[in-house]
Amino acid sequence: MTRKEITIILKNVNQKESKEKYKVVKNIKRIKRLTMETLGNISVLSIGKVNGLQTMMNGLKSIKLGIF
């Protein structure tokens, strides 16, 4: 095997690995988007948007800490 052949093989392997990694990120983004669509968004003044899941988790943390 020459150096050039090894380089080509490594490039192919790296491309396959990066595609697999991207699929995972893409799936996480899809799940997050579906969750936000399901739970809805709550406007928060000038800060922007907070998704319903974050709001629910913050509420659960507050209850656990005894703030409410």
Describe, in short, the structure shown.
This protein is mainly α and 68 residues long. Helix content is 75%, strand content 12%. The protein has two helices and two strands; from the N terminus they run αββα.
In N-to-C order, the SSE pattern is HEEH
Helix share, percent: over 70%
Mean pLDDT: 64
Determine the number of helices (DSSP H or I, runs of at least 4 residues). Answer: 2
Trace the largest sheet across and list its strands. 1-2
How many angstroms separate the termini? 69 Å
Instruction: Please give the largest β-sheet.
Output: 2 strands, antiparallel
Question: What report would you give on this structure?
Answer:
This protein has 68 residues and is mainly alpha-helical. The protein has helices at 3-39, 52-65, and strands at 41-44, 48-51. The protein has a two-stranded antiparallel ribbon. The radius of gyration is 22 Å and the shape is rod-shaped.
